[in-house]
Amino acid sequence: MDNTSQIDYWNGAAGQKWVRDADRMDVMLAPFAEAIVAPALPSPGQAVIDIGCGAGALSLSIKASAANVSVTGVDVSVPLIELAKKRSAAVGAGIEFIVADASVWKPKEPVDLVVSRFGVMFFADPVAAFANIHAGIKAKGRLRFACWRPLKENPWALLPLQVAMPLLKTPPTPPEPGTPGPFAFGDSNHIRKILAESGWSNISIQPWDGDLVLPGGSASETADFMLEIGPLSRAIAEQDVDPSAVKVALIEALQGLAGDDGRTRLKAAAWIVEAEA
């Protein structure tokens, strides 16, 4: 199992972009922190692992919502973990953040709950990764995570690509189903198969549908965000396309979508997945 490409990606320019946009991303993805945490609050004395914790928003939410629990955040990105540590120290949360690959890393002691907010879709060998995660949780321990449904069901990510398509040199090649990436878990049957084969039981996969408030208080600011993060950002980088022309097209499209407050709201579709060890 070789996750080198993902580790390199999240420790390069992409990781730095996510650090710069961490506060705005946390606001945009706040509904998912609530969807993951609220129904699965750990009991006092329990231990929690946050897989693909990024800048620590989900870890901090759990620590703030549950009394006397131990929280450990794990991520491959050094810059994001450094930011997570600073955030935790600023509020005295006492969360341990570790730079590690969750597909092979194990906690010192088995934990009670494993959570993730869009951090588990990047494993080169997801069955082996989830088997390793299963090995680090107590009997009857719980797994709960959010992952994206297919790109075609997520206008927040699809619309920028559609707008930019005439300006790209070639249409982006859709990845093979199950290829590590943001939309690798779009097929619920694929998720169920992975979890069953890696030892998990009582698997529940529920759809989440709603609107995301995209970062930016104007069409121009939201266009800047779309150029920074998401499938469009990768396409522009890979094809060496002039982003200024794409931004003009994005602003024109977004001006018709922005609300009275200047913010753009677009549909999002995810799975909320739960399983038992």
Summarize the structure in words.
The chain has a seven-stranded mixed sheet, with helices on both faces. The relative contact order is 0.15. Helix content is 42%, strand content 21%. It has twelve helices and seven strands. The model has no long low-confidence stretch (mean pLDDT 92). It has helices at residues 4-10, 13-20, 22-28, 30-37, 57-65, 78-91, 126-135, 155-164, 188-197, 219-228, 231-239, 243-255; strands spanning 47-51, 70-75, 96-99, 111-117, 137-148, 201-213, 265-276. The chain has a domain at 4-151 and 176-211 and 270-276: Vaccinia Virus protein VP39 (Rossmann fold, 3-Layer(aba) Sandwich). With 277 residues, the chain is an alpha/beta fold. α2 packs parallel to α6 and α10 (219-228) crosses α12 (243-255). The longest helix is centred in the N-terminal third of the chain and has 14 residues, at 78-91.
